[in-house]
């Protein structure tokens, strides 16, 4: 991947619906080579897909929660079970494995506090093998972007 491919990616991250003509103009290429590069990035799995950036509040999910989970045991069975179960929970938008005192951090969206309580009681607790759950509610977002920084 070269700097032109990275430039294409950054422009598409900012606006994935732009036409190839507009993309080519934005990255100073003619349309045919630009489209060829995009297709190559897609075929290589660098561009995994396209999606809409939706306002969660407008959708009806105004509460974002960061949930840190520590497992009781770190054996293969418990880790696989936790990760498999988290994949099946729609409220969990992201799940990251962490270094340090916490094993996982989840980014969760819910409609209200009752929905969060239901999420914990009926989706997280039944997983089992959890030593602790620490929750932080987001009350404001300063920056939220999916556009990667420039390299070099």
From TrEMBL:
GO term, biological process aspect, one: response to amino acid
GO terms for MF: sequence-specific DNA binding
SMART domains the UniProt entry points to: HTH_ASNC (SM00344)
GO CC entries: cytosol
UniProt entry keywords in alphabetical sequence: DNA-binding, Transcription, Transcription regulation
PROSITE patterns: HTH_ASNC_2 (PS50956)
Domain (HTH asnC-type): residue spans on this chain: 1-62
Pfam families: AsnC_trans_reg, HTH_24
SUPFAM superfamilies assigned to the protein according to its UniProt record, in alphabetical order: Dimeric alpha+beta barrel (SSF54909), Winged helix' DNA-binding domain (SSF46785)
PANTHER family on file: LEUCINE-RESPONSIVE REGULATORY PROTEIN, TRANSCRIPTIONAL REGULATOR AZLB
Protein name: AsnC family transcriptional regulator
Organism listed in the record: Tritonibacter scottomollicae
């Amino acid at each position: 991947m070269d700097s032109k491919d990275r430039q294409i990616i950054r422009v598409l991250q900012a606006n994935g619906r732009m036409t190839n003509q507009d993309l080519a103009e934005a990255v100073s290429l003619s349309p045919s080579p630009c489209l060829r590069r995009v297709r190559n990035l897609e075929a290589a799995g660098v561009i995994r897909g396209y999606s809409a950036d939706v306002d969660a509040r407008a959708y009806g999910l105004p509460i974002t929660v960061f949930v840190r989970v520590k497992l009781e045991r770190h054996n293969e069975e418990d880790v696989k079970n936790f990760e498999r179960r988290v994949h099946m929970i729609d409220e969990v938008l992201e799940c990251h494995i962490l270094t340090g005192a916490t094993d996982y951090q989840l980014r969760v969206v819910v409609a209200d506090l009752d929905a969060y309580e239901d999420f914990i009681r009926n989706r997280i607790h039944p997983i089992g093998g959890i030593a602790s759950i620490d929750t932080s509610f987001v009350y404001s977002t300063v920056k939220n972007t999916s556009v990667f920084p420039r390299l070099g």
